[in-house]
Structure formats: C-alpha cells, structure tokens
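Review session, final week

We close the course with one last complete record, chosen because it touches almost every idea we covered. It is Sialate O-acetylesterase domain-containing protein, a protein from Datura stramonium with 314 residues. Go through it on your own first, then we will talk.
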Amino acid sequence: MSQFCLNFKKIMIPFLWLILLAHIRWVSTADLANVSTSQVQNIFILAGQSNMSGRGGVINHGQNGMANETWDGEIPPECQSNPNILRLDAGLTWVEAQEPLHQDIDLGKVCGVGPGMSFANSVLMRDPSVGVIGLVPCAIGGTNISEWARGGILYNQMIRRTEAALQGGGKLQALLWYQGESDTETLEDAKLYKFRLKRLFKNVLHDLQSPTLPVIQVALASSLGSYMEQVRKAQLGINLPNVRTVDAKGLPVGMDYVHITTIAQVQLGQMLADAFLQTQTTQAVLLPIQTTMTSNAPISCSNFVLDLLLSPFR
C-alpha cells in the first residue's frame, strides 16, 4: 500500500466512523418516528402466543386436517371499544383499540377475541382514576419460549414496541404473558421451560429498566402435546418477586382443544385485571420509565452504506 493510501486511511477512518455512528443512530430511532403524541397514561404489554393474541370466536371450517379459519366477528360487551383504551398498531401509532387487538401483529393467522380488551375495560370499570390505557400487542401464535429469548426477533420486537409506546411519556404498568402450549410437545422443552421463563422475565425487566414491573402470567388451560402438567408446574413454581400467576385451567376450551373460547377470554381478562389491581395495593406507585432506554435489540446498518464507505480500502 502506498504512503498516500496510508495517510488517506488515517485521515478518513475517524470521519467514516462518525458517519457510521450517525447512520446507526438514525436507523435505531427511525422506527419510532411514527409514534403519535397521545395522552396514554398506563401502558401494558400483551405477549406470548395464540391464546394471548386471541382466537376467541375463530372457527375452522376445514376438513381432513386442512385449515380454513374465519372469525365470527362477535364482540362481547366486556370487549367493546372505549375511547380511553388505545392500542399501538404495527406502524407504532396509537389508535383506538378494538378487537382483534393483534390483527396487524400476529400476521398470517386469523385473530379473534383475546383477553386484552376485557382486561382493560375491567381495570377502568374498577378504577376510573386510572386514566387512558395503552395496550401494546406483541403476541405471536405458535411460538416456543425459546423463540422469545433475548436477542431474537420476537424479543427485540417486544422491547422495541414497548420503547416506542413510552415515547409519549406514559408509565409501563405490567407485562401480561400467556404462552407455553408449544412447549408441551417435547419433554426437553417442558423440562427447560422454568429456566427459560425466569430468564425471559429477568431480561425484560432489566432491558426496560423497570425492576419492579409486575409480570402477570397465565398458567396453561390447554396444550399441544403430552407435557402440559410439566409446563404448568414450571409456571406455578416461578418464585420471582414481581410475578403473579393467573391459572386458566378449567376455562372453556374450543373444539380444537387448544384455544380458549370467547367467553373464557372475557373471564381471563377479568382475572388478569384482578391480579393487576392487587399488585397496586401491595407496592408503591410505579415510577415512569425514562424514555431514553437501552436494550439488546440489534441495531441494523445497511450493507450498502458499509460497502460504500469501505470500498476505498478493499
């Protein structure tokens, strides 16, 4: 390499790093640009798999194992829209919440009634002073807990959407979690479930800088495999101080033996509301999370920009 190239490299590398850092900052914040200013005061994360996403009222008309699903469109009174309940849509904009809450999040699936609207309406009915509720749908049907590990797509999306929701200055009040049916299919997953679940909850609280955040999880009402009791035992045995468990066992399950019914979703939402309101009587008022948060969500930088900047040295 000539002396000219060496000198050029010494001069340009610091400059290139400044450009790269500016680009990375732009990419990491660009997806928050669409967040609208709102009066959301209390923010709740809805995460897990299909029973959190909502399959109440979803009917499979298929035959011979073929799926041909539709939602019946029936919305119970407990799940009706309310101007004081908003949801963060896929474009990171607050809109008035309505069923199905996960229709633009749990893509490729037919979504129906879940527990989120029943939960929010129940909280508002019992404590009108709560103010505007913001729901952050993040659940994806059919997902194993290993797919929610820190650094993965689902985890990163949940953290990123939550950070976006907090840009308006609201308080993060709880994580509502319903997942585990997919982990009943193999003994290995069932055995590892407790460890993976505890690690997930600890990582979320750490990455959202909210060590006192209540986590309200649901113990399974149904399963996809033979190891339901092992997973339920893991869920009921979680001993983290912030975790409350609502047991869904006994709630009505649909004809597919996996998804709870619309009536069950209404009941579950009310049970989740009970558990959340109980946390408010046993701990101090939650402090708002700082809007400048860090997480382990990967920051992307386009290969085009890297190739353009580094091409003189190749």
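Two points worth writing down before the exam:
The beta strands are 42-48, 58-60, 69-71, 85-88, 94-96, 133-137, 171-178, 215-219, 243-247.
The longest helix spans residues 3-30.
Good luck, everyone.
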